[in-house]
TrEMBL record, chains A, B:
Coiled coil (residue ranges): 82-112
Domain HTH merR-type: 1-70
Lineage top rank: taxon: Bacteria
InterPro entries cross-referenced by the UniProt entry: DNA-bd_dom_put_sf (IPR009061), MerR-type_HTH_dom (IPR000551), MerR_fam (IPR047057), Tscrpt_reg_MerR_DNA-bd (IPR015358)
Keywords for the protein's UniProt record, in alphabetical order: Coiled coil, DNA-binding, Transcription, Transcription regulation
Stored PANTHER family: HTH-TYPE TRANSCRIPTIONAL REGULATOR ZNTR, REDOX-CYCLING DRUG-SENSING TRANSCRIPTIONAL ACTIVATOR SOXR
CDD domains, A to Z: HTH_CadR-PbrR-like (cd04785)
GO molecular function, one term: DNA binding
Record has Coiled coil as a keyword: yes
Protein name: Helix-turn-helix domain-containing protein
UniProt KW Iron-sulfur keyword: no
DNA sequence: TTTACACCCTCTAGCTACTGTAGGTTCAAG
DNA sequence: CTTGAACCTACAGTAGCTAGAGGGTGTAAA
């Protein structure tokens, strides 16, 4: 039987995060000690590891909920899990493409800056004049 | 004199977002019509364009605040603006490296999935077994 | 002039995925 | 039996918006 702190250490999660996952129903309510403290077994350890690993791969908590549900029903078709993973892959690829454009523009800004006064700063100039920009006007926060 | 809606359209920003920027002090309080509606001029248009462009490049609102301040003081040294941009570039490069690792693992998951039942799903299996994983145990959400 | 309707106003709450704090209780070692 | 680390609940805060309620304004046509 593990305490919440031990579980946290084993999975690289903060204690609060574990309680949060329980609160939003991602982890089941665990057993308690006589004094009311949470006590975990191996199944909870596995489940939390699954969640953390999926988070590290960038899956949203909603996606993880679906994946957990699929994992709990071994007879269901694999297609759904596959679709979720493909969706995630696509998102990652889109983000990478977007970041690459950003990197290019940032590099340009930085390389062209000569280091004088802000009046002639290339960095600020580029930010001021959107017309020189390579990236377009759509989504922020890729 | 522009209404907030016009300003929003011209800069590709939502009306609410403009009011939000004003609220957190990123944009100055504009003049008002007799009836109390916001009216903007060209300087506000420029300032908002600057903000949006910087946001598109992934700068945080705090970083943008600094950049705006530098932009308002043409005699200051350019070094600070340069440092902010370099910091941002570094962050973008880190995120890209991280996403590349994710992409690799996601591709592996997806390619190895044969499409049967979830019991044998490669996607779920990889998530379950962290030891097969190439990415390490640190930050989430790169 | 009235009326229609798009647009504007403030205020508040909600989103994701946590993280931190306050004020108190439990557990295990010594 | 005492100490101190670890636990408990409950609530507030983070970034950067976004959405909704409930009402007021501005302008153009009838």
């Amino acid at each position: 039987m593990l305490t919440i702190g031990t579980l946290a250490k084993r999975t690289g999660t903060k204690v609060q995060t574990i309680r949060y996952y329980e609160q939003i129903g991602l982890l089941p309510e665990p057993g308690r000690s006589a004094g009311g403290q949470r006590r975990y077994g191996d199944s909870e350890l596995d489940r939390l590891s699954f969640v953390r690993h999926a988070r590290q791969l960038g899956f949203s908590l909603d996606a993880i909920r679906e994946l957990l549900d699929l994992s709990d029903h071994p007879d269901k078709s694999c297609a759904e899990a596959d679709a979720i993973a493909r969706r995630q892959l696509k998102q990652v690829e889109q983000r990478m493409a977007r970041l690459e454009a950003l990197r290019t523009e940032l590099q340009r800004m930085v390389h062209e800056c000569s280091g004088g006064h802000t009046a002639d700063c290339r960095v600020l100039e580029v930010l001021r004049d959107h017309s020189e920009c390579l990236t377009d006007h759509d989504e922020i926060g890729a």
